[in-house]
Every structure is written in C-alpha cells, then in structure tokens.
Amino acid sequence: TDLDDEQRDFVESIRGGGGQLLCLINDILDFSKIEAGRLDLEEEPFEPSRVVEEAFDLVLPRAASKDVDLIHDVDDSVPPSILGDVTRLRQVIVNLLSNAVKFTEEGEVVLTARRLDDGGPECTLEFVVADTGIGIPEDRRRALFDPFTQAEASTTRRFGGTGLGLAISARLVEQMRGTIEVDSRPGEGATFWFTIKAAMPAARYEPEPEASPMEGRRALVLLENARELDVFVRRLRSFGLHVFGRRSAAWARSALSRGERFDVAFLDERVQDAEMRSALDIVRDEAPDLPIVRLASLGSPSLGRSPCGTARTTLVRPVKSWRLQQLLLDLFDDHARGESRAARPEETPAELPPLRILVAEDNPVNRRVAAKTLERLGCTADCVEDGQQAVDAVAREEYDLVLMDVQMPVLDGLEATRRIRESRDDGRPRIVALTAEALTEQRARCLAAGMDDHLAKPFRIEDLRALLASHVANSP
What we know:
The protein is of the alpha/beta class and 476 residues long. It has helices spanning 5-35, 48-66, 86-102, 153-159, 165-175, 226-238, 249-257, 273-286, 321-332, 334-343, 364-376, 387-396, 413-423, 440-448, 461-473, and strands at 44-46, 69-74, 82-84, 108-115, 122-131, 180-184, 190-199, 218-222, 242-246, 264-268, 292-296, 311-316, 356-360, 380-384, 401-405, 430-435, 453-456. The protein contains 15 helices and 17 strands.
C-alpha cells in the first residue's frame, strides 16, 4: 500500500535491519558448511561476462547513492562459456564489489577480467577489483582473509559487516582451485584479485555469422570518466563500429559544425550542462535525425522522464554488453532486432497467467507474506495451517501449485506431499517446498517425497516470480 514519507522511513529502517541480520545468518551458515566440508560446487555451463554484469546490478544502487562510478571490463580473451558454479563465483565477485563500494566515498570501482593461460581444455581466469577508497594498512592485509576480521575495530562500527565475507570468498576461491590476493595503501584505495580454474564445455558447431548491420557505422561517444570512455569505445569497436570518443562536448559541437556525420551518438548526462546544451543545439540544426542515447546513472532524474531533446533512449551505466548490442541492432536492423529480443527474454519479465495457488504454512506471518506477495503477482492464494489441511484442500479444489512448508503440525510437508502424490497419478499440482533449511540434504529429501522444487525462506518477490515463471514454462 502507499506510505507517507515518515512511514516509508520506518519501513526502510526495519527492512535494513532485517537485511543485515539475514546477511549475518547467511554468512555464518556458509562459513559453517565450508569448515565442515559440506559445500559442494556445481559444474554447469555459464557465461562469465554475464556473471560480472549481474554482480554489478546488485551493488549499483549503493554506488549510485554515493556517486561512485562502476566500470566493468571483460577482456576478449575470456571464453564465452565455462563449466563451474555460477552462484559461488557470483558470490565472490559481489563480495569484493560490495566491499569496494562500501569503503569508497568518491571516485570509481573497476572490475577487469582476463584469461591467463594459452588455451586448452581448461582455462585460468583472473578477476581484479580496484577502488579509490580508504585503503588498508600493510600490517592488516593478510588478516583480512581470517574469519570475523576487518582492517580495524572501528571499521565494523563505521561501515558495518560481519568480517566473514572475505574469509568465505578465500575458501570458495580455494575450492575453485585458485588464489586470492590484495594490495593496498592507506588513502590510495585497494586492489583485490583472484583466479579460478574452470573446464571448457564441449565445442559446438557455430554457423558462419551473417554480415552485421553495425559494421562500418559511425558512433560519437561523450563520456566524462576516462577509463569508462576507453572501455565503452573498445566495446563498440568490437561490434564493428567506427567510434569517435571524447570527454568534452566541445569537440562534438565542432565536428558537427564541420559537417561530420554519425549514425548514433552516446552522450553522458554528466558532461557540463552548457556544453551538452550546445551540442544538442547543433544536433538539432545540423543532424536532426541522429539517434541520441543518454548514458545515465541509476537514480538520475532523466530515468524517470522521457529522454530530453532528440535523445532516443536512456541506458544505465555501467552498460551491459548484450543490452548495448540489442540497442544498436534495434537502430540498424529490424530483422536482427527481433532475434535479439527473442534471445534475451529476461530483460522484461514475462506476464504471469492468473495462477491458483495453495499456501500450506503454520506460521501466520509467513502465510500473510506469501499470500500478499502472490496477490501482487496476480495470483489467487488460498491458505491452510497444516499438512492434513493441505491434503484435504487439494482433494477438494484444483490448484496449479502448492507452496508447502516442510515443518508443520498434524502432518508435515513431506508426508502431506506423499499422500497427495498417492491420491492422483497426473503429477498435479506442482509442489514446491518452503523451508528455512537450505542444505543439499534437505532439498534431496523434498524431491524424494515427490516435490518438484525448493524455495528457501525468507524469499524475495523476484525469487517467487522466477519460480512461477518456471512452472508456467514447464507446464502444458
């Protein structure tokens, strides 16, 4: 429901406190599993560049609130796909990025990734996170990777944290057969880097690529940050464009006045207003059809309104490679635009059909949260308090999905699931375990009882939406 400013402030305080407690619990659970040797890594194919971009999404809001620039630079030597545990690699990257943003009040945080070996069935990747923050004294560097340790006692009070993140990251990197190091000086920022070893997926036949509609196009780029400009220009050139990158709008004004022609222009909203207005005036007069793309920070006022002047659209910095490529295809080729959108269905979450869902949960607060969250997603939710009521409800009504708590009175979720599966042979409804236990053994017990999936509590609306979308995709 709508909240006034004071209510919103109170709720944000509650949510922030809850988030800190959850972070603490998750860190301790992870560390305990690692120390007990019960953390197994998955071996699935994934895209390293996509992991980097997703990690930046998680730290972007905090960086934007501090006006800290975020830059990611994945070298062309990094394979498009590797085999490994995508969740754990993302966890290490997010931890290093979060620390960098936390301890940086101004300047930038830069992540670079490259391949170190010369090829073969296995690759060694290096990830480097550098910031312009407060730095770390030399005598405290090695202790950073010890559990419950931060650079100094006052750090915990000033910046928060458990002192477990780097210890967990070091052990995860070790399990991925790599190493992690740090270099820093007080007042000069810090640089963390780590390596991992990963197998390469089996090579697949790739048809010869068609001629790109971007080949030979001319792009004008105005970006204030020199490092970000260099990365952005190289990315555009990798798509086949001729790129003219500058940090000042004065050059753009001069070039357009001379009659220079471009196919697209990328303008940083932070370029001084007077220069930007001057450049836009020239564009309107000399190149009225030139598509202009604004490059804006998260939280910028320009994100909440239609692009100014002749701007076609706005991209949030740091710009994702696939999003940039899709935009250019949208501009230059209608056929490629359709294929690009089809290849990236996750950009806009698919609309969910009006599913009917049963929530079996003995905790009244959890029931209410689940029901309200489902309502926000457009679903109809019925609630019961124990496993026997869940069995009876499924016998009376047709449900698309059951969210089944595992530990309930009268009949627990595992036994309730077994009885539902015994009562009908069509595999319906889909049953998803709701449990605070995230260990592999618990998930195995749920699947063995006849459940289809597992959702750890507390869950976010994004987690539930993804689960429901998966159900829709896999159901007749």
